[in-house]
Amino acid sequence: MELFPIGLVHSSICSRSDMPVQGVCAEIEVFPGYAGALSGIEESSHLILICWLHEADRRVLKAVARKVSGDLPEKGVFSLRSPVRPNPLSVSVVRLCGVREGRFLLLANVDLIDGTPVIDLKPYQIGWDCVFSATGHDRTEKIRKMSPGEYREGLIREAVNYHGELCPGVALAVRVAEAATRIFGCDLRLPQVSVTLGADPCIADALIGITGASPGNRRLGCSGTNRYVFAGSGKEAVFCLLSMPESIEAILAEGEASLFDCEIHSR
């Protein structure tokens, strides 16, 4: 089995220890001999990027998600997205922001260091590659180990992946989700957490993307008002929206009390 790099990652990050959890904007240089394979790539908003993690230790079978915290439980590398593994391939979904000079791809959410060899590129296809009903492990412990900034970036990414853009409604939904996580002390994707949405479609999209709630899994309802309700673990939190500043930056910086009231009731 032979693999040949078709390009290289050009990134501002040169050390794995400096890479943010959500990655950075970076550029992929596709070698001239493969430039013809990029024809039509601009038609896709997202790509599947496959790279060879050239600095990874291939002897490791168990690891810890150290980007979040070094004291999380050790797991087998096949149940983690750790770079250390027998065959250190990186498979990630990235946003295509532009193409320069016919063979340089401008990408967002790239968690690869400068100089990483690129093995392949594929278009991300919504109907095949997005499994919204998929379930995974309970992320509660990992969330508790995250810094507030890291958790917020994760919420924004989940919300934008579902809604399509970061708008004021999405930013406000992220603030509500932060508060709900603090109140319930758990991963909002857990099956025991249900959500009742209000009338704003952008907030609704964002909270669906963050929680994974849907009518089919019986975790989603709708009030049609300015109330957004989270329920689970014997209590419910009712969020009543007060205002929505036009600026995304203002929403993310404002105190919660100026954005919404929250009442907590026992069930």
Tell me about this structure.
The protein is α+β, with helices and mostly antiparallel strands and 267 residues long. The chain has 2 domains: 7-53 and 88-129, Beta Barrel (Elongation Factor Tu (Ef-tu), domain 3), CATH 2.40.30.70; 140-266, 60s Ribosomal Protein L30, Chain: A (2-Layer Sandwich), CATH 3.30.1330. It contains 7 helices and 13 strands. It has helices spanning 126-129, 140-145, 148-163, 168-184, 201-211, 248-253, 256-259; strands at 7-10, 24-30, 46-52, 62-63, 75-76, 89-100, 104-110, 117-123, 194-197, 220-222, 227-232, 235-241, 260-266. The strands form 3 sheets. Strands 1-2-7-6-3-8 form a 6-stranded antiparallel beta barrel. A 5-stranded mixed sheet has the order 10-9-11-12-13. Strand 6 and strand 7 (104-110) form a beta hairpin. It starts with 6 loop residues before the first strand and ends with a strand. The mean pLDDT is 94.
Q: How would a crystallographer describe the biggest sheet?
A: 6 strands, antiparallel, barrel
Low-confidence stretches: none
First and last CA, distance = 59 Å
Rg, alpha carbons: 20 Å
| Share of helix, binned | 10-25%
**Shape call:** globular
What structural class should be given to the helix and strand makeup? alpha+beta
With strands numbered from the N-terminus, the spatial order across the biggest sheet is 1-2-7-6-3-8
Reported CATH architecture of the largest domain: 2-Layer Sandwich
Number of strands: 13
Helix and strand topology:
Elements: E1 7-10, E2 24-30, E3 46-52, E4 62-63, E5 75-76, E6 89-100, E7 104-110, E8 117-123, H1 126-129, H2 140-145, H3 148-163, H4 168-184, E9 194-197, H5 201-211, E10 220-222, E11 227-232, E12 235-241, H6 248-253, H7 256-259, E13 260-266
Parallel strand pairs: 9-10
Antiparallel strand pairs: 1-2, 1-8, 2-7, 3-6, 3-8, 4-5, 6-7, 9-11, 11-12, 12-13
Helix pairs in contact: 3-4, 3-5, 4-5
